[in-house]
Automatic annotation (TrEMBL):
GO molecular-function term, one example from the UniProt record: copper ion binding
Family named by the database record: Belongs to the Cu-Zn superoxide dismutase family.
Pfam family, any one: Sod_Cu
SUPFAM superfamilies tied to this protein: Cu,Zn superoxide dismutase-like (SSF49329)
Domain Superoxide dismutase copper/zinc binding: 20-156
Catalytic activity: 2 superoxide + 2 H(+) = H2O2 + O2
E.C. no: 1.15.1.1
Species of provenance: Apolygus lucorum
Domain of life: Eukaryota
Keyword Metal-binding belongs to the record: yes
Annotated keywords: Antioxidant, Copper, Disulfide bond, Metal-binding, Oxidoreductase, Zinc
Record-given protein name: Superoxide dismutase [Cu-Zn]
Cofactor(s) the record lists: Cu cation; Zn(2+)
Cofactor: binding comment: Binds 1 copper ion per subunit. Binds 1 zinc ion per subunit.
């Protein structure tokens, strides 16, 4: 009997908001590899929007019940490539003039595996551009990147390993 290779872990977040909708896919083949994030978000205003994984997968009161950015290591806010950042910091997505943001990124700072997994947490899209925590004298910059209100969110759920790539 042939041994089947480990397909890794796959997850999906269905983004819902008043106007914002989307579907984002997460894929990680091994725990020591980057998480690949792909998909599309629609209904946004033209320009940049902060995107973060928040600590809870609770959407009982919409996006407001998702808690703060997922930050198990108690770091200051940053961008996806920052040395100091929250695990949930993904930087910005960019919506075109039609309000569509195509997402394609890889993140080595988060995981679908282990104690600090993002599975079961909430992916949140914000109204404004994330300043990536550059203003260390500003409390909102250090904690949330001044990215504004939450316009869409969805729980990151474990997906079936077959059926998409």
């Amino acid at each position: 009997m042939a041994v089947r290779p480990d397909p890794g872990l796959k997850a999906i977040a269905l983004i819902e908001g008043e106007k914002v909708k989307g579907k984002l896919y997460f894929e990680q083949f091994r725990s020591n590899q980057a998480v690949k994030i792909t998909g599309e978000v629609t209904g946004l205003s033209h320009g940049e929007h902060g995107m973060h994984v928040h600590e809870f997968g609770d959407v009982t009161s919409g996006c407001s019940s998702a808690g703060a950015h997922f930050n198990p290591h108690n770091k200051n806010h940053g961008g996806i490539d920052s040395e100091e950042r929250h695990v949930g910091d993904l930087g910005n997505i960019v919506a075109d003039p039609n309000g569509v943001a195509k997402v394609h990124m890889e993140d080595k700072g988060m995981s679908l595996y282990g104690n600090f997994s993002i599975l079961g947490r909430c992916l949140v899209i914000h109204a404004d551009r994330d300043d990536l925590g550059v203003n260390k004298m500003d409390e909102k910059s250090r904690t949330s990147g001044n990215s504004g209100s939450r316009v869409g969110c969805g729980v990151i759920g474990l997906a079936q390993p077959e059926g998409w790539s």
